[in-house]
Amino acid sequence: MPAGSPEVLKTAILFGADAVYIGGDLYSLRAKAKNFSQKDITESVQYCHERGRKLYVTVNITAHNEDLEGVKQYLEFLNTAGPDGLIISDPGVFMLAKENAPDLELHVSTQANNVNYLTFRFWYEQGAKRAVSARELSIGEIKELREKIPEDMEIESFVHGAMCISYSGRCLLSNYLAGRDANMGECTHPCRWKYYLTEETRPGEYMPVEENERGTYIFNSKDLCMVDHIPEMVEAGIDSFKVEGRMKTALYVATVTRAYRAAIDDYFEDPEKYRKNIPVYLEEIAKCTNRRFTTGFFFGKPSAESQVYENSTYVKEYVYYGTVEKAEKIADRTVCRFEQKNKFCVGDTLEVLAHGRIEPEFVKVISICDDEGNEMMSCPHASQMINVTFEGNISGGDLLRGYNPSGK
Q1: CATH number for position 259
Q2: Rounded CA gap, 225 and 227, in Å?
Q3: Whether residue 167 has pLDDT greater than 70
Q4: 3-state SS assignment for residue 363
């Protein structure tokens, strides 16, 4: 699972991720995420290892000459911090990692365009333990990879999240249109912008590429979702399922982690149980922000149906109220302390996103108090620490959300 901050990392672990991948302040392709300081990385490694989970750090920029000395020093730090592996796309950075982080596993990023078994073999001979398959590969191609690469080389594949419109994410649109380089972690996502066609001698006359008075979003892919295809991915030989989203919220990460954790566990327990519960996984996945869903390239090249033409906004029918820090059970009620993220009121019913189970649960708000003990009928101030008495069961670490189709 992805994590853009220590808070989200802890959420991913709590809700069932076997491993989390993060980026540091530098040399990662999500410069606008909160990211992790060196102190955060050291503490996060310890947090994951104490719980028997793994932590991978992305060092996946396309490095220029001026970056190399800084990358070298950063790799030396990472070797000391001790994550379980580094995710790298640039051959030069890979060489530096072999020299300056010799104690760490090296994984090859999807940005390296890993589309054939000879490429996988090449990276294996360089010392890579794992490579992330390009998103342009089908299930059949991945299965052939598995058959033709060394048994101890691992295949990781993206199974969920936003789909980059450019080949293996190597995009120049942002650099060209906004002066911010996607391959250096500064993408402005121009693939989500609205486009018209104009004729050179008729400035100001906008002709939609498709017949639509609002324009068209010609690069705007639906999101990838493979939660209902776990058997096919296992049978193809994929070792690690990867979810996109280091810019995503704790609510998104908790929702997706919980759904895939349940799906994977159910499948290995009993394939029939998994098949029966597919509607449950899909219903849960649909509750997180999305641009509708597609299976990407897994079952053939995407068609026009894999695009969203009318807008670039997310479907966002659920709002995040907060993550419970402390919960104290008193009779049939629970007093919880947490930082509220969106407004709710006394008398409202909130949904509990509980770790360890996927079945929906609900609690009713009985009272709200601030830290001074003042009672409030609602909590309109974002990021305020509040103490809330609920009717119903809720535990520390659980998330609270609510249905809000307006998205406001």
Answers
A1: 3.20.20.330
A2: 6
A3: no
A4: strand
Written as one string, the DSSP assignment of 154-187 is EEEEEEEEPPPSSGGG---HHHHHHS--GGGT--
User: Is residue 364 within 8 Å of 392, Cβ to Cβ?
Assistant: yes
Worst-scoring range by mean pLDDT, 185-194, 328-337, 364-373?
Answer: 185-194
Mean pLDDT, to the nearest integer, of 311-326? Answer: 79
Rounded distance between C-alpha atoms, residue 404 and residue 386, angstroms: 22
Residues 247, 129 share a domain: yes
Judgement on whether residues 72 and 145 belong to the same structural domain of the protein: yes
- Among the three residues 306, 332, 364, which one is the final residue of a domain in this structure? 306
Share of the chain above pLDDT 70, in %: 87
Specify the pTM.
Answer: 0.84
Structural domain of 363: 318-403
Query: What does 121-134 look like in DSSP terms, one character per residue?
Result: HHHHHHT-SEEEPP
249 and 151 in a common domain: yes
Average pLDDT over residues 168-193: 71
Please give the Cα distance from 147 to 180 (Å, whole number).
Answer: 40
